[in-house]
Each structure stands twice: as C-alpha cells, then as structure tokens.
C-alpha cells in the first residue's frame, strides 16, 4: 500500500507506451469515470485493481495519436493557422520558429507543434496564417512559407 503511487505511475506510463507503440486506440472519458466510480465503491484489492486500470486508461487517453508522416502531401501547398510558441531564430537568412497548429486543411495536424521556416519574423504568441509546403525530416514536420503567403496577427495582450 505504501508504494501505490509508484504502481499508478507505472500503469500510466504503460498506457502511454501502449498507445504510441502497440495500438493507437481512442478511449472515451466516460470509461475512465466508470472505473474511478468502481474504485470508490469496491473493497480493498478490487478497488486497487480498478484504480490501476483507470491509470492505464488515463495514459491511453492523454497520449496524442501519432501522425502518419507518409500520408502528408509533399508537393501540394496547404493552408495553416497557428500560434507562435517560440522566439524566431536565424536559419540560413530566414527565421525558424515553433508554431502550435490551430486549424489546417490536414485534420491530423490540428493541435500539433510544427516548425515554420519563413522570411517573416513574427512576435511571440502572435497568430500566423500561411500557405506553404510541408516537409518531414528526421520525424519532425516543417512548413516552408514566404512573405506573400504568410500573414501575421499580433497578440493584443503583448503589443
């Protein structure tokens, strides 16, 4: 009983690893709530088993679904709206920054963080609307877009 949190943490990590490497399934939140309710009303060891299952299912629930990088369009430009989440760095005469995707033509990119390479130097936490080509390199996703196809909307709270 003293090491309960260690067992719960191990179950959570196993849930995350299961979704990433074995089966990318989606778990409804109601299933997690049902197992929490069971762990409250059951006695002793059955309650602990229910709590471990809850922790495992929570690990599956919180893990994002991996993106299939092979299905990304290579030569077709895509539209993207994202929020800048890092300060721009110089990258071969252009700027390179990380961006969290708010909306896109590709539904599996929504909510992901990608790297944008552009000749626009945006402010931190500003919104970027762009049209560019998506490239993948070493498992990372890059969007290459230049000024005529990129628009910046500055954050009202910072500027």
Structural features, described:
The protein has 159 residues and is of the alpha+beta class. The chain has 2 domains: 59 residues, no CATH class; 85 residues, OB fold (Dihydrolipoamide Acetyltransferase, E2P), CATH 2.40.50.120. Helix content is 32%, strand content 30%. The chain has a 5-stranded mixed β-barrel. Helix 1 packs parallel to helix 3 and helix 2 runs antiparallel to helix 3. The longest helix has 19 residues. The protein is elongated. The mean pLDDT is 83.
What tags apply to this protein structure?
30% strand, OB fold (Dihydrolipoamide Acetyltransferase, E2P), 3 helices, 32% helix, alpha+beta, elongated, 2 domains, 159 residues, 7 strands
What is the helix/strand order? HHHEEEEEEE
Report the end-to-end length measured between terminal Cα atoms: 53 Å
Spatial shape: elongated
Widest sheet: strand ordering: 1-3-4-6-5
Radius of gyration: 21 Å
Strand content: 25-35%
- Indicate the structural class: alpha+beta
Task: Say what the CATH topology of the largest domain is.
Answer: OB fold (Dihydrolipoamide Acetyltransferase, E2P)
- DSSP helix fraction: 25-40%
CATH class of the largest domain: Mainly Beta
Can you tell me the number of structural domains? 2
Number of strands: 7
Mean pLDDT: 83
Largest sheet: 5 strands, mixed, barrel
DSSP summary: helix tally: 3
Low-confidence stretches: none
CATH architecture assignment name of the largest domain: Beta Barrel
């Amino acid at each position: 009983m003293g090491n309960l949190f260690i067992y719960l943490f191990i179950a959570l990590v196993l849930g995350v690893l299961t979704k990433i490497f074995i089966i990318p399934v989606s778990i409804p939140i109601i299933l997690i709530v049902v197992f929490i309710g069971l762990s409250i009303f059951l006695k002793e060891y059955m309650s602990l088993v229910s709590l471990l299952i809850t922790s495992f299912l929570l690990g599956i629930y919180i893990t994002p679904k991996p993106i299939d990088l092979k299905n990304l369009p290579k030569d077709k430009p895509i539209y993207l709206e994202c929020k800048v989440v890092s300060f721009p760095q110089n990258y071969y005469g252009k700027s390179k920054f990380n961006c969290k995707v708010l909306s896109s033509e590709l539904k599996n990119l929504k909510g992901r963080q990608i790297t944008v390479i552009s000749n626009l130097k945006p402010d931190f936490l500003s919104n970027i609307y762009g049209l560019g080509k998506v490239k993948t390199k070493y498992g990372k996703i890059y969007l290459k877009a230049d000024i005529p196809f990129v628009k910046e909307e500055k954050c009202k709270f910072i500027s």
